[in-house]
Design goal:
The protein is α/β, with parallel strands linked by helices. Helix content is about 50%, strand content about 20%. Helix 5 (about 130-165) runs antiparallel to helix 6 (about 170-190).
Length: about 210
């Protein structure tokens, strides 16, 4: 599809910068918005002020994971074309550049869209089951990281106990280690999320 204008979006956690660019690579305007559904609606209102049709616009942003969640969902619910591109791909395409800030980055993303729009894939909302699966995988990874961190902490306490002074002080450190071990075991024993279908066990059986 041929687009008349392109919008480069540099997305952050709370806000994003938008650069409106024509097909001949001329930046027409720039503005910052809140990274919320209300902010995205303000983006569309801003675009409408230039009397441009959404069907002739391509919005392009770097795929920044959870930062582009609102943008991705709104692209479907509000009806505009969005392409999410790997940040490294854009970086390689423009080569070494001087200067870096949100406004410059948004302009570079818009320029990338102008030059490469024919090979960009438009964002499509994933299947609901796939979204749930990704959520469970994130939970699993977080639980595993917590367990590894707990084990490392216990190993550190154990080493400290060996070098601690003899007598009551040593006994106190050992008691703390035992309590930490106990609470860690109880957490992973009693957690209800033990396994995920088609993924396997989250916590290794003792």
């Amino acid at each position: 599809m041929n687009y008349s204008h392109f919008v480069g979006l540099d997305v952050g956690k709370k806000t994003f910068d938008a650069s409106l660019m024509s097909a001949d690579e001329k930046e027409l305007s720039h503005k910052s918005f809140d990274n919320t559904p209300t902010g995205i609606q303000s983006l569309l209102d801003w675009i409408a002020g230039y009397h441009l049709s959404l069907s002739k616009l391509l919005f392009c942003a770097e795929n920044m994971g959870s930062y582009v969640t609102e943008l991705s969902v709104c692209s479907v619910s509000m009806g505009f074309s969005l392409a999410l591109v790997c940040p490294l791909t854009i970086k390689k395409s423009i080569g070494l550049q001087r200067g870096k800030n949100d406004r410059i980055d948004a302009k570079r993303i818009a320029n990338y869209a102008v030059l490469h729009y024919r090979k960009l894939e438009l964002y499509k909302l994933p299947d609901k089951d796939l979204v749930r699966l990704r959520g469970w995988i994130i939970i699993r990874d977080n639980l595993v990281k917590q367990k590894v961190l707990s084990i490392k902490s216990l190993e550190t306490f154990s080493q400290m106990a060996k070098f601690a002074a003899c007598g009551g002080k040593t006994q106190s450190v050992c008691n703390q280690c035992c309590k930490s071990q106990y609470h860690s075991n109880v957490f992973f024993r009693d957690t209800k999320v033990n396994s995920i279908r088609s993924i396997g066990r989250i916590i290794k059986s003792s």
